[in-house]
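Troubleshooting: if your tokenizer reports a length mismatch, compare your output against this known-good record of 204 residues.
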Amino acid sequence: MRSIRRTALSAAAVVLAITLTACSSGDDADGSKTEGAESQKTAQKSGGADGSDSKGEPGSAEAAGLDLNDLPDPMAAQDIPAAVEGDDDATMTVEFFALKRQGETVVGQFGFTVNSSSTEEDWLYGYLGDSGWDPFLVDSQNLRKHSVLKKSINRAQTEVQGPKFKPGETYYAFAVFAAPPPDVKEVEVSVVDGMNLVTGAQIS
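Known-good structure output:
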């Protein structure tokens, strides 16, 4: 298994994330009406609203736009607790692979691998337990929070109740966000509850 590279969560990042979460609900509701609408139109026209070319079974590397034969090193990875019946020590390795700009959107690519002696399969939703998978980007340059475009675009995020998978298997996923301005080259990423905020994430 790859070595786990933990990204430190600085006090400034915590303050920024809390501040943006507290004040960006209006930003998401109002400012993203225009930005989100344009992003949705672009994604729908390009057929890339799902972050892939719509091939492969949900949860597969192909469906997430990744190539198993040429899998990139993750930008960040961390073990978080996993909810597995009968195994209180179970963990989940969460990997954040890339952010790819596609017109008016940015597509994030992720991997989830459960570490447990259990052989029972479950949904990602089940393994996450009380944690949720509601990723977002923080554009600290413009003080903007970018949530997943999931209210108006079909398949803007891999389902947490997609195909079940077993410990030791990796469930690959994508999420589509409204893109920050072209001059923004890096952002902070909140991948999943329980994982440190990823800072300095490059947009390719």
